[in-house]
Structure formats: C-alpha cells, structure tokens
Amino acid sequence: MYKAKAYAAGSATSPLAQTTIPRREPTESDVRIEILFCGVCHSDLHYVRDEWHESLAAIYPCVPGHEIVGRVAEVGSAVTRFKPGDQVGVGCMVDSDRTCANCKEDLEQFCPNGVLTYGSPDKHGTAPVTYGGYSESIVVDERFVLRIPDNLDLAGAAPLLCAGITTYSPMRHWGVGEGKKVGVVGLGGLGHMAVKFARAFGAHVVVFTTSESKKEDALRLGAHEVVLSRNADEMEKHAGSFDFILDAVAAQHDINAYINLLARDGNLTMVGAPEKPLSVAVFGLIFQRRSFSGSLIGGIAETQEMLDFCGEHNITADVEVIPMQKINEAYERMLKSDVKYRFSIDMASLKSD
Ligand code: NAP
Ligand code: ZN
Question: Which of 92, 95, 165, 186 has its CA 20 to 30 A from that of 317?
C-alpha cells in the first residue's frame, strides 16, 4: 500500500478538501497511472451531495472523478497491453465479474457485480470503497485501462472517458447518421460532446438550450439549428419531426415537450440523471409509437472504439482547465450552467498543496 494525495468530501454538505488516501501496490494484472487530468462530471456533484440517495447512496469519505487521463508509471508482471510512459485513460468502471451475460457481450456497464471507479466496495481491501480520479495516482486492472490516441490534447481528452462514451454509445445504438434528424437537449459537458458526435456521424443536429448565451457556441460546435427551449413557438416548429433526441439535462424539466417533437417511431434517450423522477404523459408515446429510454456510459470495447474515432476525427472536449483547489467553485458554476463546456482538473496543482 502507498499513500496518494487526493480531494475528498466528508459528507453530503461539506466541501471537498485535500486528504491522503491509500492505493494498493499493483498486482500482476494492474497498471499504476500517474493522473495528469481529470474531468469534472455533473455525476460527481450529484454523488458527493448524495442527490441520488434512493438509487445510489453516497459513502464517505468520497473521492470523485471518473474522467481520468495520465501516464503509465508501473505495470504488474502479467500486464501485456501497456508499458511505462503510455498515455492512458480510465472511465467510470474499474472492474466487473467478467463472467455474466453482459460482460460476455462487452456491456460491462450493466454487470451486476461491476465496480465503479468511486464509491463501490473495494474488493482488494485497500480502503472501504474505491476512490476516484481527483487524486495524483490510481491503480487499475489493465482490462479497464484505455489507450488515448497520441494526437489528442490530454486535458480535452479526459472528458471523453465519461461525457464522450455516454453520448457516443446511445447514438450508435439508435443508428444516428446521415439522413437522421437528431436533437440534443442541454449544452453542458455531455451535450456538447453529443453535438460533436452527431455531426461527425452525418446527422442534422438541433440543440435545445435554456441559455441564450450558448447559441453561437452551439453552431460553432456543429449544430445546424439552435432552439431556445423556453420559447414555445420555436419548439412548436419542430413538432413530430425528430428521429432521435438525446436528453443530457441534470435537473427537473418537462420531458413531454421533447417527446412531442419525435416523429413516428422516434426515440428519446435520457442520459441526464436528475435527482427526482420525471413525469411522462403516456399518450405522447402511444399515438406515434414513440419510445422513451435510458443509457448508461458504454462498455470497455466501445469506449476504446470511441477514443479511436476521436483520434481519427480529432475530437476532444472544449475544456476550462482548473487547479484542484478550485473544485468547489467549479461545482457552483456547474449548477448555474456556467461551464464551457467541461472543467478539466490539472493534477499538477495537487503537488503544491
Ligand atoms: P452539465 O455540464 O451541468 O450540463 C447539464 C446541462 O443541462 C446544462 O449545461 C444546461 O444546459 C442544462 N440544464 C441545467 N439545468 C437545467 C434546467 N433546470 N432545465 C433545463 N436544462 C437545464 O452536466 P453533465 O456533466 O453534462 O451531466 C448531465 C447529466 O447527465 C447529469 O445528470 C449527469 O449525472 C448525467 N450523466 C449520466 C451518465 C450516464 O451514463 N447516463 C453519465 C454521465 C453523466 P443549457 O444551458 O444548454 O440549457
Ligand atoms: Zn460522468
């Protein structure tokens, strides 16, 4: 065991603060990674403040962070895919049972015995639960370590590990591509990645935002049209016209307004995970055979496919790099939808703490 510097929350109401955490010595199949950047996901905030208590209760102390990029510092004796110096990433999962039907289909995110990057029981017994990427280093089984293409900027690549795969996966699943009209609701960390992917896949892309100030950015990021969702006339113009809508909103909102924009057989997928249940008017679904579904990150193989796609198309997140010490301020700004479009923590800042 060794000690690593990290930022942790001690309770649902306390700010994050510096601490040290134990990390295991690499086992034969482990990779020890020096963390260079970690993206700040709205899920970190939901979890730290225990907003998901009923579905996923927080355990403290909590070290969040599941958009991790860094360099391999050390590998176990049986590791074959990585060597010291490699540029790598870790997303929301660090292990699974590898034997269930989901794991066999490369859908580890649905494994009943999956281990999340933070907050899951630590089967190595190093600590009560796993600790995430707001830290100077992490030790992960090589099967859950991803290769980051060399041409990608690392600060901007970090958010691909969650925001990237969470938007890439459902769009692949629902066949987003040429000839499809696709909506993206909420231009935050996930939403801005969804716009980049939908555009790269060849779809006609419409962004729905509550922030008038993001209109220009939405077009620059690749949207063909932008709709201010609080303007009923603008919404009405798109009624019954979408093949697919991805909803990446982190708070309560009227989901029926978007269901009514779907064409016959259209699908609305939720990736946003608001604290409280949403109310669905089923007539909106019944009359046009529309469907309403959800999606959770993506499997390891698909995450690597997404990273390679980003390498080929030069796609990264638009980030504001912050020092670790600014994390509590960053959370407050995230709640005001004031992020352009992802915070990425420069872990070098932790060294001076
Ligand atoms: P974010 O950066 O905070 O973006 C959320 C966006 O939602 C905001 O930028 C804002 O966009 C919009 N929004 C916020 N409050 C709103 C309100 N009251 N009404 C309507 N729109 C509002 O968050 P994120 O990191 O992208 O995460 C988004 C959600 O996805 C979170 O709930 C997160 O936990 C969840 N998530 C799910 C998965 C998964 O696997 N399913 C993975 C990662 C994250 P505008 O300013 O454009 O309106
Ligand atoms: Zn996330």
Answer: 95
The angle subtended at Cα 175 by Cα 169 and Cα 179, nearest 5°, is 135
Q: Which residue is listed with tokens 């969470």?
A: 166
Residues 152/37, Cβ–Cβ less than 8 Å: no
Facing residues of 31 across strands? 75, 140
- Tell me: the pLDDT tens digits for 215-241? 999 999 999 999 999 999 999 999 999
Whether residue 353 is predicted with pLDDT greater than 90 in this model: the reply is: no
Helices (H), the chain: 42-48, 101-104, 154-157, 163-173, 189-200, 215-221, 232-236, 256-259, 283-286, 300-313, 327-335, 348-351
Pair type for strands 115-116 and 181-185 = unpaired
Pocket of ligand 1 (CB under 6 A): 41-43, 46, 162-163, 166, 186-191, 209-211, 214, 248-251, 253, 271-274, 295-297, 334, 337, 339
266 in helix, strand or coil? strand
